[in-house]
Amino acid sequence: MQPYSFIGAGSYTNPATPVSVDIPLTDRPDWFFLRDISAAAAGGWGGRTGGNYTAIANVSSEWFSTMPQGSFLQTGQSGAVAAAAALYPTKGTAGGFTFIDQANPPTFAGLPATAINNTTFVVSMASTGSIQVGDLVRVINPVAMQQVGGHIFAVTAVTTNVSVTLGYAATAVAAGAAYPGPATSATIRKLSLPRFFPRERSVAHITQAAQAVVYFFQPHDFTVGQVVDFTISSLYGMQELSFLTKESQGAARVVAVTNTATQSSITIDVDTTGFTAFAYPASAINPGSFTPASCYPAGAGLVPGVSPPGTNLLAATDNRNQFVMNLGLSVVGAANSTIQWMAYKADYVNLSNL
Amino acid sequence: MVLNSAAARLGQAYKETSDVLQRDQLESSASVINCVGGTNGDLPTEMNISDVDDVVTVLQNNSGEYITNIIEAEDRFGTSPIGDSYGCMLTSRMIPVLNAVTGFRRKFEYPNIDRTLSSEWGGVNNVRFFISEQGSVTRNGSLLGNDIANCFVAAKEAYKIVWQAGGKARFIYLPPGYNNDPCMLRHTAGCSMYQGQCITNDLWMQNLRSSGI
Predict the structure, then answer these.
(1) pLDDT at B91 over 70
(2) Rounded to an integer, what distance in angstroms lies between the CA atom of residue A291 and that of residue A101?
(3) Burial of B99 per CB tally in 10 Å (0-12, 13-18, 19+)
(4) pLDDT for A1 beyond 60
(5) Cβ atoms of residues A95 and A160 within 8 Å
């Protein structure tokens, strides 16, 4: 490998409200570089409207492997007439570049929460740390709401240093789930899961219907036609759905999936109208007394509506772990901008300056 | 000499990679049972003999076959028989928890160790435990934020690994002059393999989760 090998490049366009971006890589970079290459009229590096340059705080950003995770160096572009225009340097320690080996994901410190609304699942937090929309968080020791303790939730909204919203759970509530509470304190810990596909998921709610709908606290991996099974302990009710693989009718088949910004669910071909209602236990049942209800892959099944009948490989086990560079909101770029990224790898990195 | 040494280390890396891939697959998709019989006040609790019996009951109810046969009692001091058993693969961080399980027999307490593996730590009732420092751990995953050991209890034929013809380990040596090495300064050696893994019956593979590690 030569002193700096160019190991990857590409571009992306931000939406109107920029979100964190994961850039897949083939190796750990030692230098990662971003520059706003939007058309001049739309801003970007050197862009201007009329006589003035467009003011952009993060027109160019970079990170070196000797810097801490999440940090960044940055160049901003002041909005002024050409003669007075200036590029100015800044740097930060959060919201920047975070390298992630998904097979060995990093851990994050827990953050205190002062309340969790058991209907809206708005979590009040004086510090939201590096939590962003789309992140996964684990709720630890939610006092007075222990039945959701240890579960993993996806974050659907963040009000910096005020609250985060666990909107998938709120959607389950709208579908009939009830979680006795609210919690009066908890610890919220951001996490990153390995990406072996498909993954088991904790169940947020199951409806009683001719074709039951199963809700989850985070986006799921299940696909139409896939066969899934459940482990549901007696405290949750609906044990009729547990371990169906061994029953004559076999395990449940997924007939529809939903993965939106606030809803994660599957519809299964099992009539649960006569089953015991699914319900989360009370908080006082904890600690240490039950297994959470879970849904897990149990094989590939016939895809509904396909003629001749057949299956597909969408449910096949797959190792989707890879290296990614997470671009936080401080560096991901301006609204609607087009960003060029480049990654380089050093032959060696001398940390002692000798 | 150096190449032989490198090949040996790559061989170790290859097999560990194979194991890690299988571990990650079980971690992602095996059904979950929490230990609840312990006393540490967490969820899951640390493993207790009642949890071992629970998972054996689940596997028996699911028609899971034992993997190993009974090790019959013999007239030897300090030994006890081991029943027909399922196999449990778990992290070496569980050693203190295992040793504290009521009735747990270390491998040296088996009446006969002819059919044991070096990784086997011991057994109790109908489960034998095989440890590895690569065993699965979910960090900060418990109710109280402690690490959880994912202890995979398997019945016979619960999971499998498939290799494609020609896909098992290949040792690849390249002499100087390859890979951006115009001055012919560097040798490279590597290994490659590919494998697929799956749970053949979700009822026969249970992830018994324990804290206390």
Answers:
(1) yes
(2) 30
(3) exposed
(4) no
(5) no
User: What is the pairing mode between strands B31-34 and B205-210?
Assistant: parallel
DSSP A96-150: SEEEEETTS--EEEEEEESEE-TTT-EEE-S--TT--TT-EEEEEEEET-GGGTT
Residue A70's region, left for phi above 0, alpha for psi from -120 to 50, else beta, is left
Residues 6 or more apart whose CB falls under 8 angstroms from that of B2 comprise: none
Q: In what order do the strands lie in the sheet with A185-191?
A: A107-113, A185-191, A136-143, A152-154
> Which tokens hold the place of B182?
């115009």
Query: For residues A330, A332, A335 and A339, what is the CA-based torsion angle, rounded to 10 degrees?
Result: 140
Residues A256-263: contacts with CB within 8 Å, 24+ apart?
A256/A224, A257/A220, A257/A222, A257/A223, A257/A224, A259/A219, A259/A220, A261/A156, A261/A167, A262/A156, A262/A167, A262/A168, A262/A170, A262/A171, A263/A168, A263/A171, A263/A215
* pLDDT score, position A116: 97
Q: Nearest residue of B to residue A195 by CA position?
A: B28
Record: contact A296-B29, CB cut-off 8 A: yes
Going by C-alpha positions, the residue among A152, A200, A203, A153 that lies closest to residue A177 is A203
DSSP codes of every residue in A186-212 = EEEEEE----EESPPEEEEEE--SSS-
- State yes or no: pLDDT of A41 exceeds 80: no
Query: Is A82's pLDDT higher than 60?
Result: yes
Q: Which residue of A has its CA nearest to B180?
A: A1
Residues in B touching A229 (Cβ below 8 Å): 31, 202-203
Dump pLDDT digits (tens) for B36-73.
999 998 889 999 999 999 999 999 999 999 999 999 88
Report the residue of A317, A321, A322, A348 to disrupt the B interface, i.e. the one with the largest count of B CBs within 10 Å.
A317
Under DSSP, the state recorded for A239 is G
pTM here is: 0.85
Mean pLDDT, chain A, rounded, equals 90
A88-124 tens-digit pLDDT:
999 999 889 999 998 888 888 999 999 999 999 999 9
A234 Cβ contact partners less than 8 Å away, ≥ 6 residues apart: none
Is A317 within 8 Å of B179 when comparing Cβ atoms? Answer: no
* Among A110, A140, A200, beta carbon nearest to B32: A200
3-state SS, residue B60: helix
Residue A230, Cβ density class (10 Å: 0-12 exposed, 13-18 middle, ≥19 buried): buried
- Count other Cβ atoms within 10 Å, centred on residue A6: 11
What tokens appear for A313 in the block?
């490989």
Find the closest chain B residue to A148 by CA distance. Answer: B143
Choose the weakest-confidence range: A50-54, A151-155, B176-180: A50-54
Rounded percentage of chain B residues whose pLDDT exceeds 70: 100
Is the pLDDT higher at A4 or at A11?
Answer: A11
> In B, which residues are within 8 Å of A299 by CB distance?
202
